Amino acid sequence: MSDSSGDEFDPTAPDQREIGREMVDDSTGLGSVMAHAYRGEIDRVGTWRQRLDETTKWAVTLMAAILTWAFSSTDNPHYILLIGIVVVAIFLGIEARRYRDYDVFRSRTRVIQENLLANALDPSQGTESHDWRAELSRDYRRPTLKVSLGEALANRLRRVYLPLLGVLLVAWVFRITAFAPRQDWLTTAEIGRIPGIVVITAVGVCYVVLLGITFWPRERRAKGEFREGDPDDWKETDQ
């Protein structure tokens, strides 16, 4: 067998130094393994993306049903809308947990895209992370969540759930005011023996907390793809 140091591999060459010998040597199967691993990660990203969409779909469906029933008759209690707020908040918690799992696999695909695929296409730009292979190896050995629960909640609130909860809040306010014009709105807001002012205060506090979670400044840990910079002009069109 010939000595491997006598071949033409140059570890300092721009098109080989960052990818590593195993990724460019035709005699090894690591490149094929990475290709299969990448396809597997993409499939898992798609699966978890569908699970996120399913949670959102059920939240929207339930909200639509509650809104329809709440305004179908003046005899229907207003607190069904508050129950809807609680249930949608539960869906928010479920989706935030799923988003943290989804981000694990999306982060892996971004690492491979940024450091392997992008560098293979244009080695002159180098890699985003010098030790990306070690980082990816550690994550395969001991998978870890990349984003906190607070960041996951804030992400799903900004993307989906804050508008949904806002619609329910507006509907509830309309239900206890304009929809029942013959009664004082504080009286209408009562739930059993709970005074209306207490109910309104509790709802207000809940929404202040939601706004705080959504807009509290924090360092972004999730690996995004489209949030940084301005839209590029890669696909130019003739005017």
Automatic annotation (TrEMBL):
Signal peptide range in chain numbering: none
Transmembrane segments: 78-96, 160-180, 192-216
Region (Disordered) residue spans: 1-22
Acidic residues bias spans: 1-10
UniProt protein name: DUF2270 domain-containing protein
Top-rank lineage group of the source organism: Archaea
Entry coiled-coil feature ranges: none
Keywords: Membrane, Transmembrane, Transmembrane helix
Taxonomic classification: Archaea, Methanobacteriati, Methanobacteriota, Stenosarchaea group, Halobacteria
